[in-house]
Write a structure and sequence with these properties.
alpha/beta, 7 helices, Rossmann fold, 3-stranded mixed β-sheet, 211 residues, 4-stranded parallel β-sheet
Length: 211
Amino acid sequence: MLAVQIKAEAEILPLISSKRLFIFECLGCRDVHYPVEEAAEFIDSLKNEIVGKAALDYLCHREFAHEYVKAYAGEIERAEVVLVFSCGVGAQVVSSLLEDRIVYTCCDTLYVNGFQGLTAKEFNCDQCGECYLNYTGGLCPVALCSKNLLNGPCGGSQAGKCEVDPDMPCVWQQIFDRLAKLGQLHTLERLGTPKNWNVSPTSSPPEKGLA
């Protein structure tokens, strides 16, 4: 099981100040707790111009989400920022479909003990409780970096490939390329606080790739 919670306004509002918005909202599958009323209140409180909204199930399904992206292409074209209300997988799917658009997630995804549903295998969310996608171009360093680095690539990555697994792309190279394309490289200058691993499934930094 997993739960989705709405991020604090103080984290989202500075990112979207005076921007025209398009909103994707995933109503959630059985394995997700999604705060419908809280999300509606958050959206209603926004002072921004909202050029369109789409609510659907299974935003994590890339082909399904792609149909909605095509259906709302005109409204999305008018938007300066796309907001996503979903788990981390859904937010990554939207970012992958809209690589020329700034996409921000309004949610954090938290782990809850129980059965874990299946998601599209090219995307993953480690349910760390502190989503970094808004600062990394929609690419998750927690789930996609072998060393779970949050402050840039390690010294061992070469030619855009991971040091731990040379067959795997270095996600930090992908993050840099995506942010450069969006004109958002300044987000890498953000000074963040140390990650709170207490809300992650492991309650400690993951050990994969550290040997």
